[in-house]
Amino acid sequence: MFKLPITTIALIIVCCGSFIGPMGMAAVNIAIPDLAQDLHASAKMVGWMPTLYLLSSVMFMLPCGKIADNYGRKRVYAFGLGLNAVASFMCAVASSIEWVLFWRFVQGAAGAMIFGVGVAILTSVTSNKKRGVALGISAACVYIGMSIAPAIGGWLTEIWGWRAVFYSQVPLVLCLLLAIKLFLHGEWKSEQKTRFDWWGTALFSLFAVCLVFGLSYLPDLIGILLLALSIFCLGLFIVHQSKSRRPLIRVQMFLESRVFSMSLSTSFLMYASNFSLAFLLSLYLQYIKGFSPAHAGQIILLQAVSMAIMAPLAGKFSDRIQPRLIATMGCVIVAFGFLILSQLSVDSSTAYISGSLLILGIGFGLFSTPNNNAIMGSVSKNELGVASSSMNLSRTIGNLFGMSMVNLMVHYYLGDQTFSVQNNQALMSTISLAFYMSLGFVIAATCISGLRGRA
């Protein structure tokens, strides 16, 4: 009887998880206007939907990576999938925006388990010479999920309403859990089990919470105090990790490898620039341009389609060419895309928007996989779970920081008002400022990427 090698099975499982996760995030962005109208949610409350998901992911990313290294990466991965299904179902049956926000927070914790451990499983079963290809295929599945999600989210919202977007994830996750049970045999974990660092987890969680709420309350005094407390907690976390016998992450890893630390910094800035794009364009296309959810989703998917095409090619090249060179080229292309998009106006054509999204997708596809390959290739096998979580943490903190800044802009320009035609000018000001901010992030990332050194 023909039997697939464990490497292939693991790749299929992780790719399916990489496909399902982004579908939940990207599809929900398209459903936000319909959800806001149905639940009578203000602009400020709607802005917290992606932000709380990211906050939870940041809080749980490192702990999940450490638990996975100690107790089994497949076990944590499967538990995350199950929790994601439960949270999706509860979002679908929620009767108020407050309950949706609560279960989005839970869903973020599930996402930390899925994304924080999936790459570690792949790296555990794949040889060094084929790691870039495997990571490229996994990244392509993320982008394919992002490609399909806006369109599917738009169609589901138009036909059955926003709740269908959450319901649709449940059967997909259940099928994947069954596949893991039947086909993915074995477990992968560190040879050296260490005790869990509760103090480190508490300090890092407090840092993330204070950062998000501090940014949301600026320029009030409470916002400044919370940001100061956030910086203080981050400093304590770093000191604690450097002295702890059982750290969540060895801070020495950042000193031991310049490639590791600078690649993570580049990842932070690039994802800070990109995550809010789908959220902002969903509002722009539906409120300012008056497009239907399905039409808006079809336009937004162009970026993800081009990313899905480029990511596997870039991963294959990064096994032969220095990842730094390919990733830096991708950063330059993304900067050009945001330069075009920063000139967006009320009268911009669909072709103008589509062209800028294609450029962004090509650039980001060239950047992501080589950068991931550089990170995972710069650590020992005993720390693959932590490295995978660190890689996803840099991405998620970048997403969280960028979305928190956009949240601040939404609070400033719109506050407790609901989205409507009367507030289009304020919404347009928010979008323009956010794209200029993204351009600044990408320029800084390009400089750091070029200086990281050879892998």
Automatic annotation (TrEMBL):
The chain crosses the membrane at residues 45-64, 76-95, 101-125, 132-152, 164-184, 196-215, 221-239, 259-284, 296-313, 325-344, 350-367, 397-414, 426-451. It is a multi-pass membrane protein. Gene3D superfamilies: MFS general substrate transporter like domains, Multidrug resistance protein D. It comes from the Bacteria. Keywords: Membrane, Transmembrane, Transmembrane helix, Transport. Its main location: membrane. The keyword Transmembrane applies. It is found in: Membrane. PANTHER family: MAJOR FACILITATOR SUPERFAMILY MULTIDRUG TRANSPORTER MFSC. This is MFS transporter. It comes from Paraglaciecola hydrolytica.
